[in-house]
Amino acid sequence: MLAQLLYISKRSANCTQEEIKKILASAQKNNPELGITGLLLYSDTRFIQYIEGERTKLMPFYDNLKKDERHHDTILMSLSLVKERIFPNWHMGEKLTSEDNINYISDITKEDKMVFDGVLEGSEDAGQRIQRVLQKFL
Ligand SMILES: Cc1cc2nc3c(=O)[nH]c(=O)nc-3n(C[C@H](O)[C@H](O)[C@H](O)COP(=O)(O)O)c2cc1C
User: Fold this and answer.
1) What is the rounded distance in angstroms from the CA atom of residue 122 to the CA atom of residue 3?
2) I need a surface site. Which of 67, 87, 109, 116 has the fewest CB within 10 A?
3) What CATH number is associated with residue 56?
4) How many distinct structural domains can be found in the chain?
5) Does the C-beta of 48 come closer than 6 Å to ligand 1?
6) For ligand 1, is residue 27 a contact (CB within 6 Å)?
7) Which of 30, 47, 74 to probe ligand 1 with, by most ligand atoms within 8 A of CB?
8) Could you report the per-residue pLDDT of 22-64, keeping only the tens digit for each?
9) How far is the centre of ligand 1, averaged over its atoms, from the C-alpha of 20 (Å)?
């Protein structure tokens, strides 16, 4: 049974760009055999990661990620069963972003921006709507 999970976290001071490269290398190595796909958005201070895969694989995967000291204060925003993947071809897409450059992505509407800001601030009810906004980052 397929499930999706979205969490936000704070990027640790020790998480340099070099470390981000290592994270992505780990994802490229590990995610295909686990059947995990998704998207990692990061700014200088935050992460937003959307992951999808078999329910039984997803929770242990998330529990493991939470222990990584390159981030902290993880908040689970959304967890649900899904019929299909929204990132079937991305073992872990990634994008460096900032709150400022969100304004320059043309098809991000004011409403999308509010959802995104809500997620960054940890507002619970934004979780359900963020998937649609995330797809626009690619
Ligand atoms: C924000 C964040 C996202 C991560 N995403 C993934 C991921 O999608 N896949 C992965 O294998 N490791 C990910 N990691 C790294 C894992 O915590 C862990 O270091 C890695 O799986 C170890 O695998 P390796 O020893 O095989 O490289 C992430 C770490 C952080 C801080």
Assistant:
1) 21
2) 67
3) 3.30.70.100
4) 1
5) no
6) yes
7) 30
8) 999 999 999 999 999 988 888 888 888 989 999 999 999 999 9
9) 9
Instruction: Assess contact for 39 and 95: CB atoms under 8 A.
Output: yes
Task: For residue 117, give both structure tokens.
Answer: 């800001």
Which of left, alpha, beta for 53 (phi over 0: left; psi -120 to 50: alpha)?
A: left
- Residue whose tokens read 């934004």: 126
- Report yes or no on 104 lying in a domain: no
Query: What is the residue whose two structure tokens read 């999970």?
Result: 5
Pocket lining: 22 vs ligand 1, CB cutoff 6 Å: no
Where on the phi/psi map is residue 73: left (φ > 0), alpha (ψ -120 to 50), or beta? left
Task: Tell me the pLDDT tens digit for each residue of 96-108.
Answer: 666 544 443 335 5
- Give the range of the structural domain holding residue 20, as residue numbers without chain letter: 2-97
Q: Is residue 114 part of a domain?
A: no
Distance CA 41, CA 87 (A): 14
